[in-house]
Amino acid sequence: MIEEKQKQVIVEKLGEPANSYEDFTASLPADECRYAVYDFDFMTEENVPKSRIIFIAWSPDTSKVRNKMIYASSKDRFKRELDGIQIELQATDPTEMGLDVIKSRST
């Protein structure tokens, strides 16, 4: 999350490997923007294990305009600091980052 007073991105929460994708999406606030990174492990149709690092810019419609502007204006700079991002999603509601979307973008 962006800490406005300190003007920096801080890690608000870390997930556990045993957590599901649904646990991950449920942990995002319903009315505040966040940056999120998810390590998506899956099997291809050929039964080959694969992994994709997904960057999600979560900007729900219910968040305040100032919050949306701060996240939108700093997203590219922040994303450049991350290594290994393979897929980027911009989501304003949970359906835009559903597991079906993740799977279709990962293959």
From TrEMBL:
Record CDD domains: ADF_cofilin_like (cd11286)
A GO CC annotation recorded here is: actin cytoskeleton
Q: Which residues form the ADF-H domain?
A: 1-107
Q: Does the keyword Protease apply?
A: no
- GO BP field: actin filament depolymerization
Q: Which InterPro entries match?
A: ADF-H, ADF-H/Gelsolin-like_dom_sf, ADF/Cofilin
Pfam families documented for this protein: Cofilin_ADF (PF00241)
Molecular-function GO terms, alphabetical: actin binding
Q: Does the keyword Cytoplasm apply?
A: no
Keywords, A to Z, come to: Actin-binding
The record's similarity note reads: Belongs to the actin-binding proteins ADF family.
By what name is this protein known?
ADF-H domain-containing protein
Organism equals Eucalyptus grandis (Flooded gum)
Taxonomy of origin reads:
Eukaryota, Viridiplantae, Streptophyta, Embryophyta, Tracheophyta
